[in-house]
Amino acid sequence: MLRLAEFGLFLVPFGLFLAWLLLERVSARMAIFAGVAFVLIEGATIWYGLERRMDRDETYIPARMENGRIVPGHGER
Fold it and tell me: What three-state secondary structure class fits 2?
């Protein structure tokens, strides 16, 4: 998984350059719309991450099988 994240970070500058080239060809109105959409998506991603995080004093309990059923992983104090 770490290698996938490293590869993604490697591709970020190329993606930004491609976005810059594409936005150069569209109207200013479309560029503003794309910028607003990007900010909203990033804001939603940050909000979701903050809502789903565990507290510092919680310990992660991994998923396990109980009586033939999968009990999902969770945090416990």
Answer: helix
Q: What's residue 71's pLDDT? A: 92
What digits encode the pLDDT tens for the residues 33-45? 888 888 998 889 8
pTM above 0.70, yes or no: no
The answer to whether 75 and 60 have CB atoms below 8 angstroms apart is: yes
Indicate the DSSP class of residue 68.
Answer: T
Q: Label residue 68 left, alpha or beta by phi (over 0 means left) and psi (-120 to 50 means alpha).
A: left
Backbone angles phi, psi at 16, to 5 degrees: -65, -40
Q: Which two tokens stand for residue 32?
A: 């503003």
Do 23 and 31 form a contact (C-beta atoms < 8 A)?
yes
DSSP for 35-56, please give it. HHHHHHHHHHHHHHHHHHPPPT
